[in-house]
Amino acid sequence: MMEPSEVFAGINYWAVVVAAFSSFIIGWIWYGPLFGKTWMKLNGFTEDDLKKESLPVPVTMVVNYVATVLAALAIAMFLGPESDAGFGVFAGLMIAGFWIGTSRLNDVLYERKPWKLFFINLGYYVVIYIIMGAILGAWH
């Protein structure tokens, strides 16, 4: 069994930062030009709704980035120092599909959100976790 200090010693923190940042770039594209209007419509949002955020945009982005760094850190710990890009891609797909996808299924089953919205959101998670897994798996 590995000691926690050994787990943290094997992490490339630059890879964690870059992997987390990659989700911002993908999110900007995914929820912008690719699916932004559809996502807004399916959520019942207007442009004005999005301007009336509960938190200022910079605060929202910092909180989201910190959460994404924590997710990338957890993936890095899971992958370990001996992984490669291929295993990172596989792990990212499994995380998105089996952990996040099955959890987000409740949005459809109990909250009665549209299936199309489920697939837009799940697609985002699949893409970002595959990319984060590839970065973390390859960059030691």
Automatic annotation (TrEMBL):
The membrane spanning regions, by residue number, are 12-34, 55-79, 85-105, 117-139
Indicate whether Membrane appears among the record's keywords: yes
Per the record, the domain of life is Bacteria
Pfam family name, one: DUF1761
Q: Which InterPro entries match?
A: DUF1761 (IPR013879)
Keyword terms of this UniProt record: Membrane, Transmembrane, Transmembrane helix
Q: What protein am I looking at?
A: DUF1761 domain-containing protein
Name the species this protein comes from.
Mariniphaga anaerophila
